[in-house]
Amino acid sequence: MRTEAQLLESIERFQKSFWNKERADRPLVGVFDERIYLPINFLRRSFSNSTVTPDDVTGDRVMTEYEYSFQNRSISCDDFVAFSAPWRGVPWLEACCGCPVRYSEGSLAPAHFVEAPEDLADLPIPAPNKWFECMRHETERLRAQQPADCWISPSILRGPSDILAAMRGLKEFYLDLHDNPQAVADAAVRVNALLIKALDMHYSSVQPKLGGYGHIFGYWAPGKTIVIQEDVMGMCSPSMYRDLFMPSNAEVVRHLGEYVMFHLHSTGYQHYKHVLNIPGIAGLEMVLESIGPTALDLVPVFREILEKSRLMLHVGTGFEQLPQVLTKLPKEGLFLAIPDKYIRNDQEFHDFTTAISKC
C-alpha cells in the first residue's frame, strides 16, 4: 500500500507536469502489471452458462483490480494510480444497449442482435435488462469498500461507433456506414446519451479523493475524467469519424469538462488530427502495439500531440526505444505507462527515471 505522502507526490507531478504542462525534469512514469488489462483473470470461479446476466456479477465471484494487482506491488515510488472499477470483463454499454453477454473460457464478448440499421431507431436505450442498474450497484459497492490508496474509476465505456459495431456486427456496421450513414448518426446520438448517463451515474456516487479522481489507465485528474474511444474508426477514413462520431465525442467533453482524454491504438490512429480539434479535449492516450509502427516511427505524431495537447503513452512494446524517443519530445504533458516486465522494482524505476531525466 502506498502512503499518503507518496500519493501526494505523484498527484503534484500530475497537476504540475501533466495538467499544467509546467517544466519538469522527467515525464510522469507509471508501472503496471499487464495482466490487469485481462479482466477475465479476475474470476474466482467460472460461469456455468454461456451467457452472463447481471445477477452473475458479484463480489464473491469477481476480484477487483486492487485485490488482483495493487495489494502486493513490487514498486511503490512510481506514478501509476491504483484503481478499482466495475468489472471490465463486462462490455457494459454494449450490454446496456441490449447485446447478450456471451461467455467462453478466457473471455466475455457482446453478441450482435440488430438485423438492419433501420431497426436501431426503435430500440430502447438503455434496454430494460438490468445491466445499467448492475453497473450502478457495482460502483456503489466498490466505493463502500475503497482502500486508502485506491480510486474508483469508471469501467471501460466505449464510444458510439464501438457500441453500434457490437450491436450490428462489425462487417454489417462497416456496410451501414456506406449504405445508411444517417441511421448510424441518429443511433450514435442515442448511444452517446447513454454514455453520458453512465458518467453522471458514476460521478453522482464517486466523490474526489485527495483533490481528484483516478482512472483505469493509471492517471490522476483534478476533475471528473474519462477516456473515450472509437476504436472501430481506426479502419475507416478519418473524415468518416469527423462527420459521424466526432460530434458525439465533443458533446461528452462539453458535458463532463476539461479532463476528457481520447484512447487510440498505434495500429489505427489515423483520426487523431480530428480528435485534437475537439474543443476542450484534454489529450490523447495511445497504446503502442507490436504489429503497428514503432515508437520511433511515431515521434512526429507524438510531438504534434504534445505541442497541441497532452499524451499518455502505454508502452506495450518498444521500451528499448524510449530513451531515443524521449530526446525528441517535450516532457511536459507526457505520461508513460510501462509494464512491470520492463521495470521490476524500485531500484530499476530509479535507474530508469534517472536515465530519462538526462534525455
Question: What do these coordinates show?
Answer:
- This protein has 359 residues and is α/β, with parallel strands linked by helices.
- The chain contains 13 helices and 13 strands.
- The chain has helices spanning 4-19, 65-70, 92-96, 131-144, 160-168, 170-179, 181-205, 238-244, 246-256, 272-276, 299-308, 322-326, 346-356, and strands spanning 28-32, 51-52, 83-84, 101-104, 107-110, 151-152, 213-214, 220-221, 226-229, 260-265, 283-287, 311-314, 334-339.
- The strands form 4 sheets. Strands 1-13-12-11-10-9 form a 6-stranded parallel sheet. The protein has a 3-stranded antiparallel sheet with strand order 2-4-5, with no helix packed on it. It has a two-stranded parallel sheet with strand order 3-6.
- Helix 10 links the parallel strand 10 and strand 11.
- Helix 6 packs across helix 7 (181-205) and helix 7 runs parallel beside helix 9.
- The mean pLDDT is 96.
What is the secondary structure topology, with strand pairs?
Layout: H1 4-19, E1 28-32, E2 51-52, H2 65-70, E3 83-84, H3 92-96, E4 101-104, E5 107-110, H4 131-144, E6 151-152, H5 160-168, H6 170-179, H7 181-205, E7 213-214, E8 220-221, E9 226-229, H8 238-244, H9 246-256, E10 260-265, H10 272-276, E11 283-287, H11 299-308, E12 311-314, H12 322-326, E13 334-339, H13 346-356
Parallel strand pairs: 1-13, 3-6, 9-10, 10-11, 11-12, 12-13
Antiparallel strand pairs: 2-4, 4-5, 7-8
Helix pairs in contact: 4-7, 5-6, 5-7, 6-7, 7-9
